[in-house]
Amino acid sequence: MNISEICDSLRSGSDTLALQTASQKNTALAAVISSIEKNRSAILAANAEDVEAARSKGMTESLVERLALDDKKINSIIDSIKIIISQTDPIGEECAGWKTPNGMTIRQVRVPLGVVAIIYESRPNVTADAFALAYKSGNAILLRGSSSALKSNRAIVSAIKEGLNSSASQGFGVPSAIELAPCESHDEVTEILTAVGKVDVALPRGGKKLIDMVVENAKVPVIQTGAGVCHLFVDESADFKMAEEIAWNAKTQRPGACNAIECILVHEKIAKTFLPLLAKRFSDKVELRCDEKSFEILKNLVDSSAKISLASESDFGFEFLDLICAVKIVSNLSEAISYINSHNTKHSETIVTENRTNARLFQAKIDAACVYVNSSTRFTDGGEFGFGAELGISTQKLHARGPMGIKALTTTKYLIDGDGQVRG
Fold it and tell me: Which of 54, 197, 240, 355 has the smallest set of CB atoms within 10 Å of its CB?
């Protein structure tokens, strides 16, 4: 991979995009939608090959689910782009403005970041989502997916470029605003992460191993997205039925997602009543790895189909990405908050409680990008937040935090107008 040539092309694309109007960008994105629809069969066929290869190599079904596309997911990709088209173009937005005592006018306006690189695993829908968000916010994007999704990503990028080329003749599409790394070796990732002056920002999207590698090796700026060690705390005042439903949804709907819960904390005053209900609901579906106190409560369950085991210390603070969940009993809200803050990845946390004071204290003291009350953590998602799509969930505190939409790919600059002022 010739990173210099690729980035030079992307820089040219970003320079062109930065000057385009919202109407021009939206017209190009609409052409991309048409091209994805036209190439739907080819994309699904390429994805089927990736899925077959992944299964033959022993990939777990929860991760295969992240890789697999179907008509519903293609429709979701298209719907996401439509939402992005409908959103207000952030470029040129005046964030602040004032006049200084010496008569200069200062305006703070929103501008693109430039050339963005995203390094991600499996999910081929990220290919389309990341492109659309970058394009609408005036950025060119370099995509480096995983080898397991290479054929899918190639088919999607081919469709995107076809759409951009079809509108380029009308002065809208900018085909040079997107490139897919060939995924020939891991050296490509190093080249991207060390392309100082070529890549303006890199975003990792995947598991802890990938994210740590990017953060530790990058010489270009990084927006850190985090692995999802998410918790559910069932407070002593919780509605048991609500807690049961939220736990079921947050763990089982998509266990391989970063916003699925990996640990359930239960207040000691309700543990003997609630834990058997939880175990019955999860039954043979989810393995519960319990601390000593919860194991004592659950080990003699009559329902032999329940998967109950004694947890090891390494099970706490671990992202299973599977139908496995750690369980721990805590004595009070303060202990729950302290435990979560010392074991989480600053992603998404939730409390089930009927106590408003406890709910607000939990939201105030938990250190995470998204903190829920009486709701599933599965809603931490750009689409669910109304962004159309997301580049990832930022778990850092600088620049962007939480689901990243089009504004997360912008920065600001100051435009100052004077009439001859000089500083004395």
Answer: 197
Q: Which of 246, 220, 424 is nearest to 325 (CA)?
A: 246
Res 301 pLDDT > 80: no
Residue in the block written with tokens 């009070």:
332
DSSP state of 106: E
Residue-wise pLDDT for 264-284, tens only, equals 999 999 999 999 999 999 988
Split at pLDDT 50, 70, 90, the class of 303 is low
Report the amino acid identity of residue 387: F
Place of tokens 């200062």: 106
Q: Do 192 and 3 meet the contact criterion of CB atoms below 8 Å apart?
A: yes
**What type of residue sits at position 346?**
K
State the pTM of this model: 0.84
User: What are the pLDDT digits (tens) for 310-346?
Assistant: 999 999 999 998 999 999 999 999 999 999 999 999 9
HSE toward the beta carbon, residue 396, CA cutoff 13 A: 15
- Euclidean distance between the first and the last CA atom of the chain, given in angstroms as a whole number: 52
Which CA distances in Å does 53 have to 47, 58, 66, 68, 147? 10, 9, 14, 11, 10
